[in-house]
């Protein structure tokens, strides 16, 4: 599978990617646990069918020390015992926030209450922003057909400069 377009070699595409990366950096530096961030990005990417982002976030999670069992069970988190209640709340919010276009009714009050019970305001700001940003990234990569398989952890660190 060949990409349709390389955003990173286009001057405007690279400029936009740098801005997106800087938003991601602000989220990364928040108090939202890194493990939760990785699980959320992986789950949204799975839902959206973004091979590049599934590859990226599974490998980043592993590089951060995430257990392979948890990475492998993200797609079946409801039927798994390896996630904390807080992570389950974040994964539910991820799914409901990602599927808003599927006429699913958006984010339920029950899911929102569960998120409020587990996260403070800064963490919620980071979580909501993370869900929005990973969905945007998934769409960019799916539209240009950026394939998964070749990502190496840390590949985009130079964008922060």
TrEMBL record:
A Pfam family that the UniProt record links to this protein: CMD
Domain named Carboxymuconolactone decarboxylase-like: residues: 19-96
NCBIfam families membership: ahpD_dom
Record protein name field: Carboxymuconolactone decarboxylase family protein
Species this chain originates from: Actinomadura parmotrematis
């Amino acid at each position: 599978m060949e990409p349709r377009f390389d955003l990173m070699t286009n001057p405007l595409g690279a400029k936009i990617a740098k801005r997106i990366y800087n938003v991601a950096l602000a989220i990364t530096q928040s108090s939202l646990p890194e493990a939760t961030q990785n699980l959320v990005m992986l789950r949204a990417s799975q839902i959206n069918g973004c091979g590049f982002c599934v590859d990226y976030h599974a490998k980043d999670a592993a590089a951060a020390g995430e257990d392979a069992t948890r990475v492998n069970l993200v797609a079946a988190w409801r039927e798994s015992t390896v996630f904390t209640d807080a992570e389950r709340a974040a994964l539910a919010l991820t799914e409901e926030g990602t599927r808003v276009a599927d006429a699913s009714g958006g984010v339920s009050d029950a899911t929102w209450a569960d998120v409020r019970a587990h996260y403070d305001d800064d963490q919620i700001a980071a979580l909501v922003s993370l869900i929005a940003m990973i969905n945007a990234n998934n769409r960019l990569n799916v539209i240009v057909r950026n394939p998964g398989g070749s990502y190496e952890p840390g590949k985009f660190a130079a964008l922060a400069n």
